[in-house]
């Protein structure tokens, strides 16, 4: 088993499709299928249900997904530590959050002609990224919650508003609706995210519920977005989460647009205010350009 097997597996699980995964990985569909079959043959357990609507994880696949994520996370940390020792001016070290769809950013950068080969990516939460930028371990951070940014020694360049949706279990009484009013969840139990990392997200939840005339019954606390989705999928609670993690490879939940309010968290590029490497500033500006309305329409076209 190679790291390639884990990367391909995680990408297929996230995309729920071999064809979409092949586009993200920039390889042929047969190559992706072959690697997945090699992985399943090696462990002698099917990891996916294959249906006409796509690929979904088996119960064993869901368990393997957790371990594969952990292995690649450890590898990311190892790469990060090595980069502390040997850094090159030609390389830009970029941090990103789990809810920032980094494949999308890379594809948009390629579309506008940016050479991504000199970028190294590391996954950390927003606060750890900011600390790493300050300590010169990262050159650029791609963070959430830029609307409440207050670090005088850092530059913050917002580029994208990530819409917040209500998330309910697939078996929930509201799961069949196209959209809901937040007040329809006033009698539900809510999951929130770990406070020292996602305080702004939790504040948004409480403020939005207050506008709708109720105080949320916060019963569960999750370490991150994937844990929150998994908790919701068990049927014990609901939550408010960013729309761009809706394709996570966890079954059993439904995303619902919220009527009567525009709930968003802002994503941004962060770099040192006295940054002397013009390539870092150029990268931040390119990412902002990628999310301009005109470029987005061209990419979708």
TrEMBL record:
Record key words, sorted: DNA-binding, Transcription, Transcription regulation
One GO CC term, this protein: protein-DNA complex
One MF annotation (Gene Ontology) recorded for this entry: DNA-binding transcription factor activity
Gene3D superfamilies: Periplasmic binding protein-like II, Winged helix-like DNA-binding domain superfamily/Winged helix DNA-binding domain
One matching Pfam family: HTH_1
Family the entry assigns: Belongs to the LysR transcriptional regulatory family.
Name of the protein this chain belongs to: LysR family transcriptional regulator
């Amino acid at each position: 088993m190679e790291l390639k097997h884990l990367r391909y597996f995680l990408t297929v699980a996230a995309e729920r499709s071999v064809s979409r995964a092949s586009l993200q990985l920039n390889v042929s569909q047969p190559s992706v299928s072959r690697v997945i079959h090699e992985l399943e043959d090696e462990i002698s357990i099917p990891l996916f249900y294959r249906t006409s609507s796509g690929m979904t994880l088996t119960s064993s696949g869901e368990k393997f997904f957790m371990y594969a994520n952990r292995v690649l996370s450890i590898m990311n940390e190892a790469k990060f530590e090595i980069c502390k020792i040997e850094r090159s001016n030609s390389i830009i070290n970029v941090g990103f959050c789990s809810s920032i769809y980094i494949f999308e950013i890379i594809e948009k950068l390629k579309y506008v002609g940016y050479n991504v080969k000199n970028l190294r990516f590391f996954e950390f939460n927003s606060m750890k990224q900011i600390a790493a930028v300050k300590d010169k371990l990262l050159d650029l951070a791609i963070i959430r919650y830029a609307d409440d940014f207050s670090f005088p020694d850092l530059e913050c360049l917002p580029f994208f508003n990530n819409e917040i949706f209500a998330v309910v279990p697939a078996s929930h009484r509201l799961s069949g609706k196209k959209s809901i009013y937040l007040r329809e969840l006033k009698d539900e139990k809510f999951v929130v995210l770990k406070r020292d990392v996602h305080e702004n997200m939790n504040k948004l939840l409480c403020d939005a519920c207050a506008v709708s005339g109720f105080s949320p019954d916060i019963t569960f606390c999750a370490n991150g977005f994937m844990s929150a989705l998994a908790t919701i999928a068990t049927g014990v609670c609901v939550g408010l989460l960013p729309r761009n993690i809706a394709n996570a490879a966890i079954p059993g939940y439904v995303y619902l647009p919220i009527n009567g309010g525009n709930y968003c968290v802002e994503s941004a590029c962060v770099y040192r205010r006295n940054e002397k490497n013009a390539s870092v500033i150029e990268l931040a500006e390119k990412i902002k350009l990628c999310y301009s309305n005109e470029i987005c329409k061209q990419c979708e076209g």
